[in-house]
Amino acid sequence: HAYKAMHLVQKSGYNNFQFFVREDERVLDRKIKIEQGLKKALHKNEFELYYQPQVHLKSKRIVGVEALLRWKHPELGNISPYEFVPVAESTGMIIPIGKWVIQEACKQIRLWQSSGIRIKIAVNVSALQFEDHHFIELVNESLSQNLLPPKYLELEITESVMQKINQSFAIIGKLKNIGIKVSIDDFGTGYSSLSVLSNLPIDVIKIDKSFVHRMMNNTNTASVVKTIIEMGSNLNFELIAEGIETEEQAEFLIENGCHIGQGYLYSRPVTKHEIEKLLNQESVV
Ligand code: C2E
Ligand code: MG
Ligand code: MG
Ligand code: MG
Question: Which of 54, 122, 126, 279 has its CA 20 to 30 A from that of 4?
Answer without folding.
Answer: 126
